[in-house]
Amino acid sequence: MEDQSTVVDTIAASLANWGLRVIAALLILVIGMWIAKKVKGLFTTILEKKEVEPTLIGFFANLLYGAIVVFVAIAAIGKLGVETTSFAAVIAAAGLAIGLALQGSLSNFASGVLLILFKPFKAGNFVKAGGEAGIVVEVGLLTTELKTPDNIKIILPNAQVMGGSITNFSAHPTRRCDMVVGVSYGDDLKKAKQIILDILEADERVLKEPAVQVAVSNLGDSSVDFVVRPWVNAADYWAVKFDFTQKVKETFDAEGISIPFPQRDVHLFQEAVS
Predict the structure, then answer these.
(1) Shortest CA distance to 48 belongs to which of 255, 118, 56, 13?
(2) 124 and 148, same domain (yes or no)
(3) Per-position b or e across 175-194, b if 16+ CB within 10 A of its CB
(4) Tell me, what DSSP letter sits at residue 242?
(5) Which of 80-89, 106-115, 173-182 is predicted least confidently?
(6) What does DSSP assign to residue 164?
(7) Could you count the other beta carbons within 10 Å of the beta carbon of residue 213?
(8) Strand-pair partners of 139
(9) Over the stretch 29-68, which tens digit does the pLDDT of each residue have?
């Protein structure tokens, strides 16, 4: 009877011990999850006050929450008497394996974070990046989506975007429209210049400041070239350029100013046959 009593006492003590461990582990899980949610909410609030990009807020908040949950789970398992060193080693090994497998994706992710933080461009800007040009539709954590002027969708890896130069044509509200107009050597340069100035002055889309620049820039093989540099709102750039090109041709034709094209004189020599 004494042996049976001893066994029962041992089992009861073990159950009580394990019961306390299970209760402690559950408390750690419950309290830890509560703390994780609170920390996530506080972290999100801080980032929102600092006006961080919403995409980054959600990602980093979830990343922090996940890290806390993993830590709490390991602590709860340890409270049950299970050796947690092996768990940590497995997690570290898994993290290394995933990092090596997703090396390219991690590079794109890091580039995406930089794009969102430093904002070299935003949705709606017309840019040239990663060897492509188009309107920015969306900047994601891994890729950037562009739409070309002819309505083609382009998906660029963020690492490719950050790996080269970025030209943002929409960064400033105004742009200088650089054009070249050639006239014949026999034409009146002052008259041609005045015609160009009159065309630009009549166009309400051309800004008064900075002032328009029209000057002789080159004495070419077959033409005298004027450089024409009006300033316009960025949205009017192409319309002004196209309309000016047509208008200057029509006005030059009406005023007798010729726009020369490349030409070559060929001289034929006839040799006497003896």
Answers:
(1) 56
(2) yes
(3) bebebebbbeeebeeeebbe
(4) H
(5) 80-89
(6) S
(7) 13
(8) 144
(9) 888 888 888 888 888 888 777 776 666 666 677 777 777 8
- Say whether both 184 and 160 belong to one domain: no
Q: How far apart are CA 174 and CA 122, in angstroms?
A: 17
Q: What is the Cα–Cα distance from 30 to 19, expressed in whole angstroms?
A: 16
- Domain region containing 29: 2-101
Burial class (CB in 10 A: 0-12, 13-18, 19+), 262: exposed
Of 25, 30, 31, 15, the closest CA to residue 79 belongs to 25
Q: Are strands 153-157 and 174-176 parallel, antiparallel or unpaired?
A: unpaired
Query: What is the three-state SS of 55-109?
Result: HHHHHHHHHHHHHHHHHHHHHHHHHCCCCCHHHHHHHHHHHHHHHHHCHHHHHHH
Average pLDDT, the chain: 81
Q: How many separate domains does the chain show?
A: 3
How many whole angstroms separate alpha carbon 40 and alpha carbon 68? Answer: 9
Q: Name the DSSP letter for residue 159.
A: H
Neighbour count for residue 43 (Cβ, 10 Å): 16
Contacts of 259 (CB under 8 A, 6+ apart): 181, 182, 183, 184, 223, 249, 252
What the block records as the tokens of 245 is 């090109």
Residue 10 exposure: Cα atoms within 13 Å on the Cβ side: 6
**Structure tokens of 136?**
């920015």
Tokens of 75: 């602590």
- Give the angle subtended at the CA of 249 by the CAs of 248 and 254, to the nearest 5°: 95
Among 75-84, 108-117, 175-184, which stretch is predicted with the lowest mean pLDDT?
A: 75-84
Q: Are residues 6 and 92 in the same domain?
A: yes
The CATH number that applies at residue 34 is: 1.10.287.1260
What was the pLDDT predicted at 28? 80
